[in-house]
Design brief:
mainly alpha, single chain
């Protein structure tokens, strides 16, 4: 199914509202308004991901995937990626951990989030 075909598939699903979604929709009771807010937020987030990120070599991506492999990456963990890259025991041919750490340190938080998302975490 293409991306445009997926946007035409409309359905309902139960969603658990953890703290971020509860805060986002605080005080709202109308399910259509809540749905609209969630969809707008997701659409904006996806658009931001298109415009952020860093060019990474395959060894750099492998290193970051190793670091992220703990699973859920909190905002604090994402912001500490440069530190984690500098101290990780992960090694592979072509990886310069110091250069990767510098690259990550210079990146914006949005760039770091886009990297983590592109790795599937």
């Amino acid at each position: 199914m293409t991306r445009s075909e997926k946007t035409r598939v409309v359905g309902k699903t139960n969603v658990f509202f953890g703290p971020p979604l509860a805060i986002l929709t605080e005080g709202q009771k109308n399910t259509l308004e809540i749905s609209g807010k969630l969809n707008r937020t997701a659409e904006r987030y996806m658009e931001m991901l298109k415009h952020h990120g860093l060019e990474l070599s395959e060894p750099e991506r492998q290193c970051l995937a190793h670091i992220c492999h703990i699973g859920f990456m909190s905002p604090l963990e994402i912001s500490e990626l440069s530190f984690e890259a500098s101290i990780t025991a992960f090694e592979c041919v072509g990886l310069d951990k110091k250069a990767l750490a510098k690259k990550l340190e210079a990146a914006s938080f949005a760039d770091l989030v886009a990297i983590v998302e592109s790795l599937g975490f």
